[in-house]
Design goal:
The protein has 193 residues and is α+β, with helices and mostly antiparallel strands. It contains 4 helices and 6 strands. The chain has a 6-stranded antiparallel β-barrel with strand order 1-2-3-6-5-4. A hairpin with a 5-residue loop joins strand 5 and strand 6. Helix 2 runs parallel beside helix 4.
């Protein structure tokens, strides 16, 4: 089992603020040179679509208080579509040969994850993080190593700062982080009852 990512590590290397915390499959590819502007533009376009889609998946319709039959029917259909999507995602995950999920902390500036190798500060990587279990398209970004700490399991906890993210992608990323934070707070309140 891997160490949890140190909560202070992300604030130390990437600044304070709300943080996305999860165990997700992450793949990294060392880059010998900075990605071209055109490649960064393509990644930004794909990431914007991914984050918009993930946002739409997380919006749940609730039954209206007056028992509106149409709202109830739409919620029922949405539930069935979600079940089919989960089943398709499970089959797709086997075909994609996803990496093992590991602890990740992320804010709009970068992420902290475990890596088998110990990179040096300044090295650049293309990171692919699978943020949604229903939609197995990765959030792909160019990132530069800004901090490294050893983990108890022999891996390295690595802080990576995102490079070349558009303002639109950063905005959608902040919304994703906020939604996850809001869900975690709601779960904590439910468990306190």
């Amino acid at each position: 089992m891997t160490d949890p990512v140190s909560p202070s590590m992300i604030s130390t290397y990437l600044g304070p603020g709300l943080v996305y915390v999860d165990n997700v499959p992450v793949r990294w590819l060392r880059l010998d040179e900075t990605l071209s502007e055109s490649r960064l533009a393509i990644l930004n376009d794909e990431n914007e679509r991914l984050l918009r889609y993930v946002s739409s998946l997380e919006e749940y319709l609730h039954e209206s208080k007056d028992g509106d039959p149409l709202a109830h029917e739409v919620a029922r259909l949405e539930f069935k579509v979600n079940i089919v999507m989960e089943m398709v995602s499970q089959v797709l995950a086997q075909k994609l040969n996803l990496p093992v999920a590991s602890p990740v902390e992320m804010n709009a500036k970068g992420l902290v994850c475990h890596m088998a190798e110990t990179p040096i500060c300044g090295q650049q990587f293309q990171i692919s993080a699978y943020l949604n279990r229903q939609y197995l398209k990765p959030f792909e970004v160019c990132a530069s190593v800004v901090g490294v700490e050893p983990a108890d399991d022999g891996t390295a906890k690595v802080a990576l700062e995102f490079q070349g993210l558009s303002e639109i992608v950063q905005d959608h990323l902040e919304r994703l982080i906020f939604r996850q934070h809001r869900r975690m707070v709601a779960l904590l309140h439910q468990s306190d009852r």
